[in-house]
Amino acid sequence: MSRRSLAVIGIAATAALAGCTSTAAPSGGTSGGPITVNAADTTCEIGATEAPAGTISFAINNTGTKVTEFYLYGAGDRIMGEAENIGPGLSRQMIVEVPEGGVYTTACKPGMVGDGIRSPFTVTGTATRSVDDNAKLAEATAGYKRYTTSQIEALVPKTQEFADAVKKGDVAGAKALFPVSRTYWERIEPVAESFGDIDPRTDGREDDERDPGVAFTGYHRLEKDLWVTGLQPDSGAMADQLVADMKDLQNRVKTLELTPVQLANGAKELLDEVATGKITGEEDRYSHTDLWDFKANVEGSQAAVSALRPVIDEKQPALGKTLDERFAAVDTLLESYRVGDGFTLYTALTPDDINKMAAAVDALGEPVSQVAGVVSS
């Protein structure tokens, strides 16, 4: 099966996921409704340049010919909210909680590359955080932060083991540790992405757009060294930088304040990761260990949803049952590809295997896309 045919399957799954929107009533625009975003190939038209603090909703319409993304950034390009992988002609709703007034930045990213088409966006006044008004939401964010902390506490030493194997020239050992180390990263990637600079260094692909002089680093650079080119003179330095970035992430997360909507959006983003990188085999293109990442993304999504379940069950009990069924279906499917402590390599999958996975992720993505609307209502 050609890479092109696999990409087509993945794009179909992405389109289905990207088309999902919340069924809850939107909020946050200047008239109480969503702020319209018309994202084209060369323009990014925002229906309002300011909104009151609190829950803000954007309705993003891709009117261009390229897959696009939409972001709301805070100071230092801190990601407040993001809607990824919006195919041509499709729409997505993005809900974000912004309790503090100030100047923020919106950005459309046609082609999902570069800094995007940016504009200032003003948030006026202040608002009480949802976690201050709702004990269940407060416990949800606290519980998910505990989960994030536990994953990073495992991520740092496991990455060190991987780096040590690279530096010793233990290729077999490093190959075995590569997908294991990445598991902890993939479960919490939306948290890492919220900082803006760590994710590109750690998880960037070789063909990603970079600023002049910015090197290809991180997991996938070392993946190429191990599986394709052989270890390079600077592979040890790349491994040391990877560990340093993980320790940096660990320190930053200590002071991170999450919102319930961020948990819900992160759960959806992790499924989008599956649809765009794992199902197509594009992400772990050298090692073909994509199903390890697939499993971790789904586990991370489920952890975020589980933290929010008391609120979901209170406001929309039927949704919780559907979420349980869909997560279980994906898990059962993935377990059918397990081999020992790992999974079948991507190159061993058939077109039918890929189609089954795409359908399962599509079915799961629909109810997960509703969670942000439920917890923000």
Structure notes:
The protein has helices at residues 3-18, 130-133, 135-168, 171-187, 189-193, 198-203, 219-229, 235-253, 260-278, 290-315, 317-335, 351-368, 371-376; strands spanning 35-39, 44-46, 50-52, 54-62, 68-73, 79-86, 91-98, 100-108, 117-126, 338-339, 342-343. The N and C termini lie far apart (45 Å). The strands form three sheets. Strands 3-9-8-5-6 form a five-stranded mixed β-sheet. The model is unreliable at 1-31 (pLDDT under 50). Helix 4 runs antiparallel to helix 7 (219-229). With 377 residues, it is an alpha+beta fold. It is 53% helix and 17% strand. The chain contains 13 helices and eleven strands. A hairpin with a 5-residue loop joins strand 5 (68-73) and strand 6. The chain has a single domain, classed as A middle domain of Talin 1 (Up-down Bundle).
Quick structural gist:
This protein has helices at residues 3-18, 130-133, 135-168, 171-187, 189-193, 198-203, 219-229, 235-253, 260-278, 290-315, 317-335, 351-368, 371-376; strands at 35-39, 44-46, 50-52, 54-62, 68-73, 79-86, 91-98, 100-108, 117-126, 338-339, 342-343. It is α+β, with helices and mostly antiparallel strands.
